[in-house]
Amino acid sequence: MKLNEALNIVQYTIEPQIPDADEGKPWVWMTKLAEYFEGDDTVMSDRYEFHEGKQQAHDSVSDWETRVRQTASSLEYGVMTDQVMRNKFVFGLYSHEMRGELLKLKHHQVDGNTLTLAKVVQQAKALESAVQANKLVESSTQEQVNWTNQYYQKRTNTG
After folding, report:
1. Other CB atoms closer than 10 Å to residue 98's CB: what's the count?
2. Are residues 100 and 91 in contact, defined by beta-carbon separation less than 8 angstroms?
3. Which residues share a beta bridge with 108?
4. Mutual orientation of helices 117-158 and 81-91 as an angle, nearest 10°?
5. Which residues of 1-20 are buried (b: 16+ CB within 10 A; e: fewer)?
6. Of 18, 28, 38, 120, which one has the greatest count of Cβ atoms within 10 A?
7. How far apart are CA 47 and CA 88, in angstroms?
8. pLDDT tens by residue, 128-157
């Protein structure tokens, strides 16, 4: 697109759509430009991207939560948004073990509320921390066993 074409679009297509009270508001202009060039209804493609997303092996639980929340922000699910995000968070987890544990949680809670994304994320972070702590314990135990074996081999060889 040439500069003259772009200026004509702004002057003859976008500017007439801007109310006088909003002329000094750049975000109004940006919204109108985005609607013109991208279309104003991307809900279907945004939902597709949302439902196809999966946590990657290197993503932390927090990274995955952030991506789920960001991609869901424009999906227009209304009152169901939290449940849709909660489900996507669980269904898209990389770890089969973590997903299995979270699927054991009850949709209807004892307090009468439904299970929220925040509660699921809290559980997922606890599970993630437990896995990381277990790996540390396993590696330190292996190091201790190796050191102990080396120590006793030196004593028996010198003694």
Report:
1. 19
2. no
3. 114
4. 20
5. eeeeeeeeeeeeebeeebee
6. 120
7. 11
8. 999 999 888 877 766 665 666 666 666 666
Residue 38 phi/psi, 5° resolution? -105, -20
Q: Which residues of 30-60 are buried (b: 16+ CB within 10 A; e: fewer)?
A: ebbeeeeeeeeeeeeebbeebeebebeeebe
Collapsing DSSP states into helix, strand and coil, what is residue 41? Answer: coil
- Joined tokens for residue 40: 């104003």
Helices 81-91 and 61-72 cross at an angle (nearest 10°) of 140
Residue type, 43: V
Cβ within 8 Å of residue 123, ≥6 positions away: 101, 102, 105
Separation CA 105–CA 118 (nearest Å): 13
Q: What sign does the CA torsion over 102, 103, 108, 109 have? A: negative
pTM, two decimals, is 0.64
Rg (CA), the chain: 27
